[in-house]
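User: Can you predict the 3D structure for this chain?
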Amino acid sequence: MNVLVLLAIILFVSMIWIGGKKGARSFISLFLNFAVLLVSVFIMMDPHANPIIITLIACTVISSINLFYINEVNNKTIIAFVSTVITVAILLLFIYFVTKKAMIQGFGEEEMDEISVIFSLYLGVDFVKIAAAVIIMSTIGAVTDVAISITSPMQEIFNQHPSISKKELFTSGLTIGKDILGSNTNTLFFAFIGGYMALLIWYKDLSYSFGEIVNSKIFSAEMITIFCAGIGIALIIPIASLVNAHYLIKIRGKQSDDKIIQR
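Assistant: Here is the predicted structure, written as structure tokens:
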């Protein structure tokens, strides 16, 4: 416990030293997001609760914390928030369909012996929806990060070139997204695989063949999570670019109309 407290203090000091007030808000947001996830898990334990709806609400709250609490309320964060909600809604439906078809819900054979000895497997929850919720919760941070990473430079481009067309602004957003796409996808890949290195070692001890590893439920669930996360990052780029371009051009049109009226 002392080590955890020490690491938390080092992280807090580092974030304040580098980020100042925004760094402090970022540190606090970690605990706020953890609280949202914890509450969501407890609510999902109710057999009558819908994990998909709960996940959508939780992702909306998490996006609000990450965008509005850390970066304050402005045009950039509002557009990033709207783009994130649209992307999460689309991604949830897609992930639910994929999870149901891939049949990765529930526990794998490797987990059954250890879990069934201690716990009851009759939980009374929809594991398809739970699996979809887990995947979308794993991607919300990356989707929000990409959204603000696109809206912020797009607004700077618009401020520097007020006469830019909607198509050119949208293309600029896509260009920015191309540079972000590769690095973020690889970050997610190594984050997930790094966390499952012990699983790969376990497969080696079980003398699994390559085919058995690929077809195991645990490995398939992990790879589907990585692929869906990558799809979410790819999806947020055109959505954020389109919504931001539409909003900025609409604001410019209103400002032009106001100037004409004043004259």
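Residues 12 and 27 are 6 Å apart (CA to CA). The chain is about 85% helix and 0% strand.
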